[in-house]
Amino acid sequence: MKSKNEEISQDPQPAADVRQLIWTTELVQKFWDYQSRFSEAYFSTQFGAQIAKAIQSAAPNKARILDYACGIGGLTGHLLEAGLLVAGCDLSPESIICTRNKYENHPGFFGAFSMADLARSDLKFEVVVLAELIEHVDDEVLHIIFKDAIGLLSPGGVMIVTTPNNEDLSIDAVYCPCCDHTFHRWQHVRSWSAEALSSQFRAHNLNVVTALTTDFSLAPQRGLLRYWTRLFLNFISNRRAPHLLGIARKMS
Question: How far apart (Å, rounded) are the C-alpha atoms in residues 96 and 101?
């Protein structure tokens, strides 16, 4: 006869009907409306300053920049702190209101819009930023995003994309015991490489400027000891850079 402790320590058998969650538009909006309560966990909050530097170096002087799918404005704030002219847009009404309320008095901020309202406007931008977005969408939505973003670019304008590099989606998979489904804890549905990102640019008639791997967590201002330690460990372990930065230009 097995003790209670022995029974508890046995590996649980996965339920036979566990399925991967299919993300609908409604589920995606509910997920991000909830996550918007925890801004400190957002990638753009943690590493937005480094992303803003990369954007600043690629943006023309005095460029108008659109933070596409801005969420609650984490990256928007870092771009404004870098002295750039910035607007944001998003699907979530709560996120739009949050971003607008945060920055409406900042001299470099010129609005937070719904994507539908922005598409109906005459506003054009020299730079459109898709930060940590394309890993969240399927092929159909991805095409819509690129089409909309390109439509908001002025002739010769620049699209800047960041996304995880060759992410193993299974590592961050979680299980919901209520519905017997698994899903990525940050709602990622696809993994990208530099080659795949470049191909996506070309498929939408954009001229590829660069598609490179990087590590936005490496920054001296986050602590010199941590910075040099991470650089050394990455070197000796041949660690793969965790992030991608893609830049492409709209044809004139």
Answer: 9
